[in-house]
Amino acid sequence: MDExxxxxxxxxxxxxxxxxxxxxxxxxxxxxxxxxTNSQENLGYPIIGTDDDLPDLRRDYEVALVTVxxxxxxxxxxRLFDMLNDxxxxxxxxxxxxxxxxxxxxxxxxxxxxHDVIVNANAKVGKNCIINNKVLIEHDxxxxxxxHIATGAIVNGEVNVGSESFIGSGVVTKQSVGxxxxxxxxxGTVIKTDVESNQVIKN
Length: 203
Known about the structure:
By secondary structure, the protein is an alpha/beta fold. It has helices spanning 11-23, 54-57, 75-86; strands at residues 2-7, 26-33, 47-50, 63-66, 94-95, 100-101, 106-107, 112-113, 118-119, 124-125, 130-131, 136-137, 142-143, 148-149, 154-155, 160-161, 166-167, 172-173, 178-179, 184-185, 190-191, 200-201.
């Protein structure tokens, strides 16, 4: 079983640990924090370095996953993904065995599909995304790179979500609407019309 390092050691990392353990495809070697302010283990896994140590850690580990959360901005996740990619880490797709991912959909590198998710036929999910627990991504929907679709959100058929956007918990989108890049859609919002890039929508 290949070892994997998790880059980020906060709350989202704990959720990722749970998915990785259940999937059984990788052994978690440890977590990487942004600096030396946190040296405690997380769910029994050690902190094995900081972001600055990633080049050195590459000598010992081939596989990594960005496990920093994302709400207002994707900037940290984008930076870490680009760093890992430049260092030639393998960046796998992680899928909970409790989810249904259609064989007719496409999922980008370093995306995690968490528990009880449905990704339906002909949907496309980009790189470095968080598809959180109980999300539905319907047929022909497109989710861009570096997005976080939060718990219980419904992305209906033919919806297009631009890169680096956050779709909050319980959001429901009308079929075929477009949501631009770098948007933040607040929890519980119902999106019935297109949303331009860089918009913050509060319920």
